[in-house]
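To: structure subgroup
Subject: Chain for Friday's discussion

All,

I'm putting the inputs and outputs inline so they're searchable in the archive.
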Amino acid sequence: MKDSTRRLWEQQDRHRGDHLRLFTAVGKFIGDTPVLYPGSFVDVAASFVFESVICIDNDRQAARFFSDRTGVDEIIERQRRPPITASWRFIGADHRTDLDVADESVGALFSLHAGSFPSIAPAISAPEAGCWPIPATVMQQWRRSVPTTASGP
């Protein structure tokens, strides 16, 4: 793993496991479905829970991070539960543009920091076009699992 990959991941995961807990709670609710994650930056925690994840970001640091495929695979394999192979792809683009994502090829869209995303709504295979909201019950379960004091690296 490149040092820059390790450093970016440590910065992303500075509140150890917070996104893992969130995605685990969501996964319990929606099951294992292909995920689209616009605005992911270098957050690979969705790949710890879901078998297939497409990360989208136009940040240059994110592009460098994901270009270290061996390093990203190492991060995922180290923390993946259950230990099965994860499939991930990175698209280095603005998520508001036309993307190389087949219609109805994903079942969930996670947008923690991306804002609006009208161009990718057709890729969601939910009964009604759009993104799946995170239900209050899932958020409550995640909040209960978050430590009251966060510790950095």
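Points worth raising on Friday:
The beta strands are 35-38, 52-56, 87-91, 108-109.
Residues 22 and 139 are 8 Å apart (CA to CA).

D.
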